[in-house]
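Let's do one together. I've listed all components of the complex below, 636 residues spread over two lines.
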Amino acid sequence: MTLGFRLTLPAQVLVLFISLFPLLMQLYISLTDWSPLAGTPWPRAWEFWNTFANYTDIPGDTRLWAALGRTALVMAVCVPVEFLLGLGLGLLFVDDFPGKRLAYSLLIMPMMVVPAVAGYMFFMLFQSGGPVNDILSWFSPTPVTIAWLSDPTLALVAVMAADIWQWTPLMFLILLAGLVGVPQDQLRAATLLGASPWQRFRTIVLPRMKVIITIALAIRAIEAFKIFDTLFIMTGGGPGVATETISVYFYKITTQDLVWGYVAALALFILVALSIAAVWAMKRMAK
Amino acid sequence: MSAIHLKSLVKRFGPFTALKTMDMEIADGEFMALLGPSGCGKSTTMNMIAGMEAPTEGRILFGDRDVTQVPMGQRGVGFVFQNYAIFTHMSVRQNLDYGLRMKGVDPGPKTAAMAELLGLTDLLDRPSAGLSVNILQRLAIGRSAIMEPAIFLLDEPLSNVDAAFRAVMRTELKALQRQFRQTMVYVTHDQLEAMTMADRIAVMDHGVLQQVGTPLEIYDRPANTFVASFIGSPAMNLIPGEIRGGAFTAPGVEIPGFAAADGPVTLGFRAEDAQVAASGEIQAPVYSMELLGDSSMATLQLGSKSFAAIKAAKDFKVEIGENLAVRAPARICHLFDAQTGQRLSGAKP
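Okay, and this is what the predicted structure of the assembly comes out as:
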């Protein structure tokens, strides 16, 4: 063994232990029917051995697939909306205008709000006697009293609105950094060659932003998949399971149903599925 | 092809006046150099011709067409940027036919023809990032030339090139201009570039047009002391003194034969016009000697603050501090007003 390897060995072992041990423990528990209420500590989970029964249960778990579908819907709506809003704002902020600094500070503020606080803010905004309905009432002959968070469809809309409010600023910040980096001379050169604003955007700005757009979309897609805190405070996944995303579902079966063997199997399944999806996405982006 | 007329052009940035009332005519097919130090207004003038900046006052005409209000994309002007502004995420071909594609015109054989003309044929499908400077320059010119603009503007295209390569690029640029026969406006702060390439030079300083003329006119008959000191290497010798009874006098200098009235003036002459001799109009101690290779340069100290450079043979030897006699007759000298620096009518040749 080289000296370098021996010197870093303690750190390597520690890292290995931290990353590998929980994974092996999870794999072990996922092959059993063990639960914290079982009365035996987890190393003796083999007493509840059920081989692959947990894994074979996954395809029939309709609540899981519904939650996955809902999460996909949140991603499919929130990420593109945040991207388009962020890009539009970024294009606006590339040029100077009076009050730009103040507008900039106000615009990135939602990002600074603690997600739990944002959740509570939106919980109050969407109450049937809340400000959202008040504003809608201005445009309606009769007072609007929509029960946003009690309606299965509208609750999901409200939750997505909160996500868009909170995370458009991040998209805006990243995209603005990319837009500022587009060389002005190239834009002028394109203009002098007769390119219209849209052609300049398509042929100069977008190609130059490709990497940064990919990064921004990837960050937001991953975060949107994990959506939990704001949503949980607003609806708790309800009404019923109407806003139950994958994170909320995990939370519930872990803390309420306490089926830890199944949770471990499910978590491993999601990890493998996501890894495959990520590798596929990265290969596509590399092209 | 098209002539350019600048009529009473003024550009102010807030309280700062970048260009003070400029009138200039650039003929069809002419190579005009805008020459001056940084901040003289040459780039501002060029940007206004291109439409990148709007003039505060005045008008710009291309031929008979008033383009003052025409946005930059519609002026039909080719522009070569200081850094060439090549679209580095595109291939050479995509750069060349960019303008045509944006207009929705099929480039057809034009791209290949332009590449042939500029010697870029072998590089057409290479990515443009990482090409050498002279290829980037040709590409930048070709990308504009393919649009067949009436007017070509070049903004210090050689300033990023190292000195050794600049001479090559100058020759290449001049040859390209002859091929395209377009009106070219060339901005530079390098008097050598202006002298070697331009048909006419417009010398500018502090937002004021100092003189317009052929390189030879500007060299031989500078309109004022600024032009005299900016053009030529070394700069023209400028000696403050006075005219008394038709003769110019200054410490160590006594030149007869001027028709100017008595009073203070500034005398100018070029280093290569004066000659070291046994006796002459200038008698002064040598301050320094430099060997230039093909010749040498003696600097004389005239009085306490004034110096004059004299070209001598390369094997010329003299001790520092030794008195040197120089022939500088009135026919090689220029007289400038001591206050305004303007050329005096009595000056020769």
